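Q: Could you fold this chain for me?
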Amino acid sequence: MVCLDICLAPLKLITMLLTKPRMKRRLCYLFKLEEGRFGQLTYLRIYEGVIRKGDFIININTGKKIKVPRLVRMHSDEMEDIQEAHAGQIVAVFGVDCASGDTFTDGSVRYTMTSMNVPEPVMSLAISPVSKDSGGQFSKALNRFQKEDPTFRVGLDAESSQTIISGMGELHLDIYVERIRREYKVDATVGKPRVNFRETVTQRANFDYLHKKQTGGQGQYGRVCGYVEPLPHGSPTKFEFENMIVGQAIPSNFIPAIEKGFKEAANSGSLIGHPVENIRIILTDGASHAVDSSELAFKLAAIYAFRQCYAAAKPVILEPVMLVELKVPTEFQGTVTGDINKRKGVIVGNDQDGDDSVITANVPLNNMFGYSTALRSMTQGKGEFTMEYKEHAPVSQDVQMQLVNTYKASKATE
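A: Sure. Below is the predicted structure, expressed as structure tokens.
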């Protein structure tokens, strides 16, 4: 018996029990992409039905209809061509444009299987090819890595127009920089890693903003009233907007523009310019003008209203905290523990595994740069560690002041 979490449309999650294969429909889950000698291999786990060479399947995530040109069963690094595969089997197909976590069916059902929880990236760095002639291979590498790894993101800095790669830590990004060089023969210039801080509010704050601008022609008029407050800890969403207006103080066709304005304002907090999350915006009142009100006017009113009340909501900076597990010879336990404390880490576990000590700690990612080298030095090369994202947590007051001052200094020089 197999238990699946299924999304019916985007927002409804159900659990489905598969007690026996249903032969009349197909259901497959893509869990891995790999660049092989013969092109991209797409690994599928078949949950229902039968897939045959030449069949058409539909990628529910993209809506694309795809033909299965070749079906293989993998044996280590060898592959065996097969004509069909049944429920419960893992197979690979060639030439399918897709991404990790996609669901494939025969089109008779319109649900997708929920994929693994993918955390937001916690570290970013700027990257560019040394030679402009390598731009094609550089782009090809980044596109492929994004499809293979949902925790690896690629974006463009709006101010500098630099390519930004983001991931789950320093080592994670280093691996992809090395793969670009090794697999695509592209030397890249890499900037200094940057931690992905966030901002949030800690208390409720009211706003009442009137955006009014008169020009020679049609003016701009929009008033928004309400409040911003923090979302409960552990809330599944990072931003909520709720229209609580009774009556027609603001025509309903302007409400989406107001929500868009608040979302845009939350993309960059005033403390250090990082996104603001875990907030709820409640719209309670407002005013409009029969001639001068427009979507643009209300969008701008929302942006300025957010900025108006942000300081009163007592904002704080959040930093990514990593769950770090170290395994070191017991003789180095004291040295390693002391170093974790210096990095403002909190020891949450200390166990013994033979002659080794296993230390578990929560450590701010901003204090973990270069830790691989430091650990090797402290343990004569005998220590090892793993690190994974745990949560974003408020920074200390002195760290917040330092980050704010650094941000202000950088803005002053622009």
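A (continued): The chain has a mean pLDDT of 88.
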